[in-house]
Design brief:
Blueprint (H helix, E strand, L loop, with lengths): L1 H14 L11 H7 L4 H4 L18 H13 L5 H7 L4 H12 L10 H13 L10 H4 L19 H15 L12 H10 L4 H13 L2
Helix pairs in contact: 2-6, 4-6, 7-11, 9-10, 9-11
């Protein structure tokens, strides 16, 4: 498993680093531009709706990349299409800078799911070949911005579960997984999620929600 984890990290550093360049973002300008985002993601990036992701504390490079992928049609998010269509690269950089400076509020894990969630997050599942989430996202889920790995800590369980199932579907070539097909970063997650059971996904999503 250590070899698998190291391979995943190396692949991301080689392939993902090409997309990490971010134009200088202005957080103050981003706050003004974020007004339209607040309805779904909260005024400070802490969403009140579990189906919409928290953006507070996310790295600038990751947020910019996701916005660019959505605008280019490489990541399909119907709710975002009308919004990203009008964003310039500077707008994206400003929004990313604003959200990166916000403090994530986090959540709480279901005590009944903590043991399994922690086990898979920290050590993976050697039997099914699932790599440890911590290898790329850090032991506390804060991510590795320099490698393009996003922060997961405190993310809504409902959102994380939906994304893992979408990655799994894409990895298994199910039709519902087409919305997570953007690049090498997504393919890494597809390969991992394809081996996750529903029980493991639910436990992971809950555990991640409780990370601070």
């Amino acid at each position: 498993m250590k070899l698998v984890a190291k391979t995943l990290v190396l692949a991301a550093l080689m392939g993902g680093s090409m997309n990490l360049a971010v134009a200088g973002g202005d957080a103050a300008a981003g706050q003004t531009k974020s007004a339209v985002c607040g309805a779904c993601h909260g005024t400070d990036g802490n969403s009140m709706v579990p189906n919409f992701p928290n953006l507070a504390g996310q790295s600038e490079s990751y947020t910019v990349k996701q916005l660019k992928d959505m605008k280019a049609g490489l990541r399909e998010v119907p709710e975002m299409m009308a919004i990203v269509a009008g964003l310039s690269e500077q707008d994206m950089a400003d929004l990313a800078a604003y959200y990166a400076k916000q403090t994530p509020k986090g959540g709480a894990a279901d005590p009944a799911l903590v043991e399994l969630g922690q086990q898979v997050f920290r050590a993976g599942n050697p039997t099914s070949g699932v790599a440890a989430c911590a290898a790329c996202h850090g032991s506390t889920g804060k991510g590795m911005a320099e490698a393009g790995f996003p922060s997961l800590a405190g993310q809504h369980a409902a959102y994380t579960e939906a994304q893992l199932k979408a990655f799994r579907a894409a990895g298994r070539e199910d039709a519902e997984g087409k919305r997570r097909t953007n690049d090498g970063e997504a393919k890494m997650m597809q390969a991992t999620a394809a081996r996750l059971s529903d029980k493991e996904i639910k436990a992971l999503a809950s555990y991640i929600n409780g990370l601070q």
